[in-house]
Amino acid sequence: MVAAKAGGDGYGAAMSSPTPFHEIPGGIKTSNRLGVMTIAGLIGGVIGFALSHIPGDGKDSTSLSELRHHTGLWFMFIVVGIGAGLIAGNSYLDGKPPSGESLLVAVPALLVGGYVSGYLAQMIFTSMLDDAALQSCADSNSSWCVAYAIPRAVAWLVAGGLGGLAVGASFRSRKRIQNGVLGGLAGGLIGGALFDVVPVIIGRDSEAASQVIGICLISTLMGLLISMIDTARTAMWLEVISGEMRGRQFLIMEQTTTVGSARTANVTLVSDRQIKEVHVTITQASGRASFTCAMQAPVLLNGFESHGANLSNGDVLRIGNTDLRAGFRQATGTASYPPPPPNGAGRPPDGVPRGRPTASDAAANPGGDWTSSRSNPPPPPGASRGPASAPPQPTSRPRLPTKPTNN
Fold first, then answer.
1. Residues 6+ away with beta carbon under 8 Å from 104
2. Where exactly are the transmembrane stretches of this chain (predicted)?
């Protein structure tokens, strides 16, 4: 039997391991992901609020261009703080620090995206206000003014969406970009809408309180919603069921996912010297998933050596000395292959195609001489890729980060 061969490559004792091939995988550990990313978003918001004081309050800005530039800097530092928190949270979930390559993408994305989001948000905010609205707010004795609230909510929505885009881009993932935009839009809208209401709620006309609550609402909702959308839009995941990383889950979100020991791999498996830097590549297409091994480094699929095959719900991959169970949101049925010959009689009859070992085959026939998919692995399905007038000039200029003041 191929899987039971002797040798020093870590595969010889595979069939003697107690890996339960027949178990059906549990779902994604949603509560853990939601909790980590929500707390990470909140911490990022606090960091962003602290950093936002670096460019000053900007109240001495007199021209519209100065206002836009200052608000751009203000949001840039906020987005950097939020992005740092979310990247740290995601790194915790992935079990690895961000790679230098990822940081080279993340830092410019956060700086540029944050500045652009604030600059455009200030443009929208001032364009939605006229002299009559400004005068009504100045004459009002209330610290809350509807003429400011609606434009601010719209402007923060735009800023949140663009900031979320920057945060998503820092992960170098198309889906994470989409999820970041959606989470940022929702968080920005709610945070902006509540900005002018906070003084009424807390009974204090405090600009700092409005800012920190608004910023933390955006960041917390961004972390929560990004993790919720990540989970809802993920069709496949891997769960480590042996070794030092036991219990950790990895969401397989992209069409092509690399698995290995390198920090640049999409799924990084540490503390296992048998794993190559890029050991396995997983491809998703047309609702199915398959894997291929790189550098002629085989793995065990449900206890049988394989260089590549389709993956089904519950399949167990042993890479090096680490077992991973594949899970699918919509369980994929195993392919229709002939059963192993009775009584360990050897190979299937001539002309019968050799099939992939399924989890049920490994459980039902742990000692049988079943064929390896090594000799004729089905090729991974081809990844099909789709096409992928002038603003008012008020005497007291309104700033997006601040509350209206009575003159």
1. none
2. 34-54, 74-93, 105-129, 149-169, 181-202, 208-229
The side-by-side arrangement of strands in the sheet containing 322-328 is 249-252, 236-240, 322-328, 316-319, 299-301, 304-306
The CATH label, of 2.60.200.20, 3.40.50.720, 3.40.50.1970, 1.10.10.410, for the domain at 235-364 is: 2.60.200.20
Torsion of CA 241, 247, 251, 256, to 10 degrees: -30
Q: What does the block give as tokens for 127?
A: 């364009």
DSSP 113: H
User: DSSP label at 403?
Assistant: -
Domain boundaries, the chain: 30-232, 235-364
Q: What are phi and psi of 310, to 5 degrees?
A: -75, 155
> CA quadruple 168, 311, 239, 277: dihedral positive or negative?
negative
Total residue length of the chain: 407
CA dist 45 and 215 (Å) reads: 6
Shortest CA distance to 187 belongs to which of 171, 212, 163?
163
**pTM of the entire structure?**
0.67
> Measured between alpha carbons, how far is 73 from 116 in angstroms, rounded to an integer?
9
Residue type, 325: R
Q: What is the pLDDT of residues 40-94, one digit of tens each?
A: 999 999 999 999 988 877 677 778 888 889 989 999 999 899 989 988 998 888 7
Alpha-carbon distances, residue 169 vs 162, 223, 263 (angstroms): 10, 15, 18
